[in-house]
Amino acid sequence: MAIPDSNIDPVTPGSRTTAGLWGGPFVMGLLLSLLGVVALGAVVLTSLFSVIFYGAMLVVAGAFELVHAFRVRKTGPFLMFLLGGILSLVVGAMVVARPGAGLFAVTLLMAGYFFASGLFRGITSLSDRYEGWGWDLAYGLVSLALGVIIFAQLPASSLWALGIVVGVEILSRGIAIMAAALAVRGVMRRRLHA
What we know:
194 residues; 6 helices
């Protein structure tokens, strides 16, 4: 039997300590995955909630920036923080007050990002031909196609695009957390049986 590392407390298989190290993260990942599935099932609501949340966060950030501006008015860049705070407050309030327009703007930004990112990756991978360049080319083509599809279907795509991106992000984050928890469980089992 292997001598356990002095920094790690020995735990027995099936104990609460062992289960707590991987079980909690696994359950959290499972719940996140379920939330991602729900978000993908209601992409319009997910899009709407996401843009309202974004606007509310801009309002909060703007308020904090204004407070900070007055705290550093004699020692720091007062005008920069003041104008940045006002801008964040105004844009955040406009997004919260008119979420449809905010959703359209965010979707347009997403389409531009996907298009530019795909174009950049595609051109770079074709010109440099480094190891694994084919995967980057494929990623670039998919990203380019997403940008074109989202842009071509505006304004209708503003109802589903952000919701799909957010839903896929939540789902993939949950799956990644579950996979990491299972990997921890496997390492612990191998260590205990070594």
